[in-house]
Structure formats: structure tokens, C-alpha cells
Design a protein that fits this description.
Helices cover about 50% and strands about 5% of the residues. It contains 22 helices and ten strands. Strands 4-3-5 form a three-stranded antiparallel sheet.
Length: about 475
């Protein structure tokens, strides 16, 4: 078999993908949902995290410098000996190299094909078709699907260890000239009769990729569903992406609201809910700072709020993007505009529930939790843009929105001896419980963590009265 070197890789895209992968132990890796594993890196059977990181770095060098397999082996001689990857064990080493290089290649290729999708809207599966081609891959050879077809969520290569399949992008004219049929039905999981390289029919079996390869690593890299990640890994992943964006110039020159909206739609989609970010509207109408309809549309108000330090959500958000581009520290209001956007991104990820009046205690509670979380997690946006928070403690203490509610909730936590160590548990509850039904599970969580299970009913009662004045709320807490 000829030696494979990644000299023809789409370098920028492949390297961006590789550098963003989070190294972790095999136990952590296989604890992730399969779709999330494309953004992680591990090597089964390697216990040392130092060795895993070294292998990842060496593969990155192979991508960057176009090293062949034989050249790459010289980068990790100590690990090879320790793991026994010599003699017959060398096949394992070759599998590690080829699978990871091919994955990086195809992630880069996916981004390139996405960029020309309007001109070349069809993708064709391309198998090698020799004695080593898997029957399922051979069965798909030459099949054409629309670029956005769900088929590619499962079958975008690689589809197994050492898979050599590829994908060609085709224009409408090419499809017609070649007499190709554009498939509409997804064949995944259906029974098919495999044919070997000699034309012999084999036993029928379901049409599936190899185990562990039925997710699209490319889509997950560029459009990740962060709900699939534990919070620690989510934050690490966003930080690494932010560092990459920063080194490449995370924020382009943005002068207008439409440019800002387009940038937010493209760059911050990983932080949004299932509907993503369809549109960002800047408007002078409405009495809100920012809002979302839960269907992918976000609204940013272009007017000042004198009672909130002259905060103008639209102008301050635009100013924040410009400051990040210039590497300048953010003012309180500009940083709070980022926090306000995070507030709406969190709303977009809530589990739907009954529509509530703004004075309903259940709505007050869900807005309080949203604000409590957004003040503590908006740095995820900044991390994704390669920036850091300068005013987070001040924003946690004196953010403009829902101030009394948030202050009362903080007093309740303080009364129970609790604090930000509950952040991940509160966020999980916030995302999984229905938005109109937070009181009962939150009271149960707080009572359990405070080791006061007998106080759960009283805690729940307090949660339903977060709109009380400070004096009245203080009396409520006196009963706890």
C-alpha cells in the first residue's frame, strides 16, 4: 500500500478542526454522545493524558507539515515502544494515523463544499471499489443526494477505520449531463444484498456505517449541539474555538447592524437552541432590551434606557464587537450587551411550556433563572470570540434586567448557604424542566444541596414570591 501523506489537505480548514479538538481520557470520550465525539480526541488503551496530548500534537504537526505515516512515527518513538505498537501492533498505529488524518481532511472538505453549495448543490458518494472496500460503502458508490439531505448526517466520510471513501460536489448541469439520479429517500438501516469486488452476492444486512462512525464529524464541528457536552467539556471546547478565532481575527470589521446580525448568526449559532439563529433584527420598537421568539429570530432594541445608565442594547452590542476586534477592554454597558444576548440565547434553549403572563410567579421565576445564569455564563460568547470578561462581578451584582428578582434569589441562596457551586446543576434543570415548571424541581435541588429536605415546601413558596420588596422578602427568609 503506498504511503499516505496529507500534502493535499485543505490546510486551513483541517487545521482549524484539529486544533479545536479537546483531548480527554477514553472513559470521558466514550461517555459523550456519539455526535459530540467529533470535537474530542482520545486514543483507546492509552492511560496517560500526557501521551494522548502528545499524540494529538504530533498528528497536528503531520497535518501542518504534510508528514507521511513513516515520518509521523518518528515524532512519538517513546509512546510507540511503551504501547507495544511495533511488529503486529504497528497496524494499530497506522489505523490511528490514517483515521485521524482522513477525518481532518473530510472536515475541511465539508466546509469547502458548503461554501459552493449554491453552485454545486449535489453531493456524490465515492468509494474506492477494490478488494478492501466495505460492502456497505460499495453499495453507496455513485449515489447522489442533495447536499443538505439527512443522509450525510450519517454517511459523510469517514465511515469506518481506514475508510477511503470521499464525496464529490456536483452542479445541476453535471448531474443532468451524466444522467445521474438524485436520491430522495434515506437508505440508512434498510436491508441490502452486498456485492463483493467480483460481483458475488453476499448475505443481506442493514446498510449502516461501521460502529462508532454514524455521525458527521464535520457538521458537529461547525454546527455543534452543545447540549450533548458536559459543562466542563463545553467550556473547554468554546475556549479552544475562541483561541482559534482570535488568532485568525475573530471579529471582522463590522460597521452596520446588518453586518453585526450576519456575524452573530454565523459565529454564535453553537450557543443557540434547536432552531439556531435564523435572523437578528435591530429595531426601535418594543419595550424590551433584547428578545427571541423561540423559532430562531432574535431582536435587539436600538434605543437608550435612561434608568439603566443610558444602556442602548444595539449600539452597545455593536460597540462590543468593535472593541473585541481591536483588543480593547469592554465598558460595563458593552459587556452587559453581550450578557443580554446570552440571556436570549439561553431562552432559545429552554424546554417549552405554557405561555405565561409576565406577572405570573412562574414567569418571574423563569426570567430570574435566565438572568442568574446569563450573568454567570455570558463569558462563553466572549470565549468564542477570543475575548475575556472585564466586568463580570459588577454585572453579577448590578446587572440591569430583573434586578430585584435576581437579588432576592441571591439572598435565598445565601440564606441556604449555597452559591455558584450549583451553577451546572441549576443550568441542567433550567434546560431540561419545562419553563413554566421550575419551582418544584428547583426547590427540591436547593433543599437537597442545603441538607434541609424538610424545608422544601417553604423554599418552593419563597421561589414563588421573588417579586416582593426587599423588606418583605427579608421577612420571608426569616422563616427559613
Amino acid at each position: 500500500m503506498p504511503d499516505i501523506a496529507p500534502t493535499a489537505l485543505p490546510m486551513q480548514e483541517a487545521l482549524e478542526y484539529w486544533k479545536s479538538k479537546v483531548p480527554m481520557s477514553a472513559r470521558e470520550f466514550y461517555g459523550l454522545a456519539e455526535a459530540a465525539r467529533g470535537n474530542a480526541f482520545t486514543v483507546s488503551g492509552v492511560a496517560s493524558m500526557d501521551a494522548i496530548v502528545k499524540i494529538q500534537e504530533s498528528l497536528g504537526k503531520a497535518l501542518s507539515e504534510g508528514l507521511s505515516f513513516e515520518q509521523w512515527k518518528k515524532e512519538i518513538p517513546g509512546i510507540i515502544l511503551k504501547q507495544g505498537w511495533t511488529g503486529k501492533g504497528a497496524r494499530r498505529l497506522e489505523t490511528i494515523f490514517r483515521t485521524n488524518i482522513q477525518t481532518a481532511y473530510h472536515v475541511g472538505r465539508w466546509k469547502q463544499m458548503q461554501a459552493v453549495k449554491a453552485l454545486r448543490p449535489y453531493w456524490q458518494y465515492d468509494a474506492v471499489n477494490d478488494s478492501r472496500t466495505r460492502p456497505a460503502h460499495r453499495a453507496l458508490d455513485g449515489k447522489v443526494f442533495p447536499a443538505d439531505h439527512p443522509f450525510w448526517d450519517t454517511w459523510y466520510p469517514p465511515n469506518g477505520h481506514r475508510c477511503r471513501c470521499g464525496v464529490k460536489s456536483l452542479s445541476d448541469r453535471q448531474v443532468k449531463a451524466l444522467g445521474l439520479t438524485v436520491e430522495t429517500e434515506d437508505p440508512t438501516g434498510r436491508l441490502f444484498e452486498p456485492v463483493d469486488e467480483k460481483g458475488n452476492r453476499l448475505l443481506a444486512r442493514p446498510l449502516m456505517p461501521d460502529r462508532g462512525f454514524n455521525a458527521n464529524a464535520a457538521r458537529e464541528h461547525y454546527e455543534p449541539d452543545l447540549s450533548l457536552y458536559p459543562q466542563r467539556l463545553r467550556d473547554i471546547f468554546l475556549k479552544k474555538r475562541g483561541e482559534l478565532f482570535a488568532s485568525a481575527g475573530a471579529v471582522p470589521e463590522i460597521e452596520t447592524y446588518p453586518e453585526a446580525g450576519a456575524f452573530i448568526k454565523e459565529r454564535l449559532a453553537p450557543l443557540a437552541g434547536p432552531s439556531g439563529i435564523e435572523s437578528v433584527y435591530f429595531t426601535r420598537r418594543g419595550d424590551f432590551m433584547m428578545a427571541t421568539n423561540g423559532a430562531g429570530d432574535f431582536y435587539v432594541t436600538d434605543r437608550a434606557f435612561p434608568e439603566s445608565g443610558g444602556f442602548n442594547p444595539a449600539k452597545d452590542l455593536l460597540g462590543a464587537l468593535r472593541a473585541i476586534r481591536e483588543g480593547a477592554p469592554l465598558s460595563f454597558n458593552r459587556e452587559y450587551a453581550v450578557e443580554t444576548l446570552q440571556h436570549e440565547l439561553l431562552h432559545s434553549r429552554q424546554t417549552p411550556g405554557e405561555a405565561l403572563d409576565s406577572l405570573d410567579p412562574r414567569d418571574i421565576l423563569q426570567e430570574t433563572l435566565t438572568q442568574h445564569l446569563s450573568r454567570r455564563t455570558y463569558q462563553r460568547i466572549l470565549s468564542l470570540l477570543g475575548a475575556g470578561a472585564s466586568n463580570q462581578e459588577a454585572i453579577k451584582a448590578a446587572g440591569y434586567a430583573y434586578g430585584r428578582y435576581v437579588k432576592n434569589f441571591g439572598l435565598l441562596l445565601e440564606r441556604l448557604g449555597l452559591g455558584d457551586e450549583l451553577l451546572s446543576e441549576i443550568e441542567e434543570l433550567y434546560l431540561t424542566a419545562k419553563r413554566d415548571s421550575y419551582a418544584e424541581p428547583l426547590a427540591r435541588l436547593l433543599a437537597r444541596r442545603a441538607a434541609r429536605p424538610e424545608d422544601r415546601p417553604r423554599i418552593m413558596s419563597v421561589l414563588m414570591r421573588l417579586n416582593e420588596t426587599s423588606e418583605d422578602f427579608g421577612r420571608l427568609l426569616g422563616d427559613l
